Amino acid sequence: MQRLYPTAEADGSAGLGTPLGLAEVYAYPERAAGPYLRANMVSSLDGAARHDGRSAPLSSEADMRIFGVLRALADVVLVGAETVRQEGYRPAKARAAFAARRAADGQPPAPAIAVISRRLDLDFTAPLFTEPATPTLVLTGAATPEDRIAAARAAGAQVVIAGDGDGVDPVRTVRELAALGHARLLHEGGPRILAQFAAADALDELCLTVAPLIGGGDAPRIMNGPGVPGPARFVPRSVLEEDGFLFTRYVRA
Q1: Which residues of 12-50 are buried (b: 16+ CB within 10 A; e: fewer)?
Q2: N or C: which end of the chain has fewer CB within 10 A?
């Protein structure tokens, strides 16, 4: 287990305490391997994904640094509509430390946010839709009311049909995003949506922050939905630590 504190290595290269140092730890596979779906979640010691309805109380300064790096590496960030509403989602930021890296890789300055929603019951006047550096996407099913699809498009969002019914199909979602050029995918939940992707065998990697906190109560786990056949086996790729928080990275076996 490594600690996050170092900001420079003995040879002068970026240490784990820097965004570029963390980027090496969390680098995606080469694009030629196809689309790759990573999830980033936080959990208390007793398994809660939220405290008082939000994930922020379980986070830390180091957790937010990693959160920023994972976004800076991604083409698109997937998130459920409920999480967008609960967490007050805003557009992803363009990060100066990654500007040259993203430009060289053909990525826009910031990843797009892709909201998964069955009904498109979203506030299209929110900054997520009015102020994005990269246009926001909405992922929905073919049965979504036409007036809601029209409202999303009028707000400047790109609508992606990723299911035949009133919801999205996880495997089709990955395929549709890949067709748009988004190969490096980052899933930020919430628990119900993430469970659906895991159950469909669409999840390649889980980055899990384990907070040294106990909250009790009836908060959901990081996956709170259909069961995963098997269960699926993942193997550890890295474990980092700062201030008692563990930052784990697991990949599909």
Answers
A1: eebbbbbbebbbebbebeeeeeebbbbbbbbbbeeebbb
A2: C
Encoding tokens for residue 73? 């590496």
- pLDDT value for 13: 57
Contact 251, 39 (CB under 8 A): no
Give strand pairing partners of 159. 138
Give the Cα separation of 55 and 221 in Å (integer): 11
- What residues contact residue 109 under an 8 Å CB cut-off, 6+ apart? 94, 99, 102, 103, 133, 134
| Cis peptide upstream of residue 190 (ω within 30 degrees of 0) | yes
pLDDT for position 3: 76
Q: Rounded to whole angstroms, how far apart are CA atoms 242 and 210?
A: 11
The burial class, CB within 10 Å (0-12 / 13-18 / 19+), for 215 is middle
Q: Is the bond preceding 231 in cis, omega lying within 30 degrees of 0?
A: yes
Determine the 3-state secondary structure of 98 from DSSP: helix
Q: pTM of the entire structure?
A: 0.94
